[in-house]
């Protein structure tokens, strides 16, 4: 009897995506531990200052051509990043990392919802279904005896952080193709480290 028909096949791209997802999920535990050693805002600032320095060193030649539009884009995206990560890290001080990961992932259905509200881009049917299911999941996460309005301060702070992350994605899509990615990345990381 041959087991070859049961062979599990995974493409390299899928393996990398799985690895990245595992790494991302593990960062919630690492961040939760790190904020016990330092404050959430110091930790986020240091994290983004390190990233800004690393990307700036790689992109030194292209930084000379920084335009006003790229500066504005980087500042706006950087503020959204700082808010998202700072609020998420702050929330991690009072809620478990698993709950924080779930609430933070709410940015996925929030993106089409905010695009509809802010940019008048109507989401498709599947996006609408995803939005409804995500909010039902959040209500269930609150517990059968609670409702969405009964979420504690840590959950609410983390949810506002998820809105900021969704805003970051919308801002990136608004400037995509109109700016130099390297220059904007350095500005947004530097801004996030200072805010």
User: Which spans have pLDDT < 50 for at least 5 consecutive residues?
Assistant: none
Tell me the major beta sheet.
none
Element-level helix/strand string: HHHHHHHHH
Number of domains: 1
Mean pLDDT across all residues, rounded? 84
Describe this structure in words.
- There is one protein chain.
- The protein has 9 helices and no strands.
- It is an all-alpha fold.
- It has one domain.
- Helix 2 runs antiparallel to helix 9 (181-194).
Q: How does the SSE layout of this entry go?
A:
Layout: H1 12-37, H2 40-58, H3 60-63, H4 68-91, H5 97-104, H6 107-119, H7 125-142, H8 153-175, H9 181-194
Helix pairs in contact: 1-5, 2-4, 2-9, 4-8, 4-9, 5-8, 6-7, 6-8
Q: Features of this protein?
A:
mainly alpha, 9 helices
Q: In short, what is this structure?
A:
The protein has helices at 12-37, 40-58, 60-63, 68-91, 97-104, 107-119, 125-142, 153-175, 181-194. With 195 residues, the chain is an all-alpha fold.
